[in-house]
């Protein structure tokens, strides 16, 4: 599955895969860490596993010295710096060639949001289907800095959270200063409308039972669809 970045702007990311022909896959979230490393997440076709890609930081050009002027009327041109690697190239120290694909139960799983912990570990949130015939549930995965699943989180690095008998989709993610993780999105009762859905997890991936009801909160604003697509942690100091 090759990945290509839109020159040096990273405004878009294209992921492709397929044995007999390329299929355009879905990119849903991206961010840049303090070192300039770019992360993106989304999904791939063929039962849509989580997809996470990491691009290298923009390299610092090799410094060059200013040439000494010559007596001739035409000055000596200054050499053009050559970067040590192309900006936006995949970081081959991460996952397999800069890419990570995570499967939840061999069914559809979509990564919608990504956040970076202070220790460098990466959390992705979205939704997954536990079987082909069921509705989706909140799905989270946490990765070590090298792209491997963090086995200290949930079940082998993965967490599934069910809100109802209908569809549950996480679309946003934020990490509190104490390391607890908040995911937000929507939950839809079978045949009903979507309502705001939030879940908070402790650092090990278990639902934080001090939050809402058993770690979950559902909020209806109307008798129509209500869906959360962002979440922020307020400073109470």
Strand order of the largest sheet: 4-5-6-7
Strand fraction: 35-45%
- Per the principal axes of the C-alpha atoms, what is the gross shape? globular
Structural class: mainly beta
Secondary-structure element series: EEEEEEEEEEEEEEE
For the biggest sheet, the summary is: 4 strands, antiparallel
Secondary structure: number of strands? 15
Oligomerization category of the chains in this entry: single chain
- Radius of gyration, Cα only, in angstroms? 22 Å
Share in helix: under 10%
Q: Summarize model confidence as the mean pLDDT.
A: 77
Low-confidence stretches: 1-24
Question: What is the tally of helical segments?
Answer: 0
Determine the N-to-C terminus distance.
46 Å
Explain briefly what this protein structure is.
This protein has 237 residues and is an all-beta fold. It has a domain at 108-219. It is 0% helix and 38% strand.
Structural write-up:
This protein has 237 residues and is an all-beta fold. It has a domain of 112 residues. The strands form four sheets. Strands 4-5-6-7 form a four-stranded antiparallel sheet, with no helix packed on it. The protein starts with a strand and ends in an 18-residue tail after the last strand.
């Amino acid at each position: 599955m090759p990945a290509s970045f839109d020159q040096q702007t990273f405004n878009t990311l294209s992921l492709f895969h397929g044995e007999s022909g390329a299929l355009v896959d879905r990119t849903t979230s991206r961010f840049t860490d303090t070192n300039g490393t770019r992360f993106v997440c989304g999904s791939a076709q063929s039962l849509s596993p989580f997809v996470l890609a990491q691009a290298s930081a923009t390299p610092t050009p090799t410094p060059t010295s200013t040439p000494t002027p010559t007596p001739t009327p035409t000055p000596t041109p200054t050499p053009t710096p050559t970067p040590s690697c192309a900006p936006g190239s995949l970081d081959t120290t991460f996952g397999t060639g800069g890419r990570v694909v995570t499967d939840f139960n061999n069914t559809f799983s979509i990564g919608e949001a990504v956040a970076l912990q202070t220790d460098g570990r990466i959390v992705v949130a979205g939704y997954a289907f536990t079987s082909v015939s069921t509705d989706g549930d909140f799905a989270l995965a946490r990765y070590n800095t090298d792209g491997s699943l963090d086995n200290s989180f949930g079940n082998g690095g993965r967490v599934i959270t069910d809100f109802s008998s209908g569809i549950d989709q996480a679309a946003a993610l934020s990490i509190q200063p104490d390391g607890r993780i908040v995911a937000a999105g929507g939950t839809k009762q079978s045949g009903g409308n979507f309502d705001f859905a939030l879940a908070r997890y402790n650092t090990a991936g278990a639902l934080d039972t001090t939050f809402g009801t058993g770690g979950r909160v559902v909020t209806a604003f109307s008798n129509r669809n209500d869906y959360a697509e962002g979440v922020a942690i307020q400073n109470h100091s």
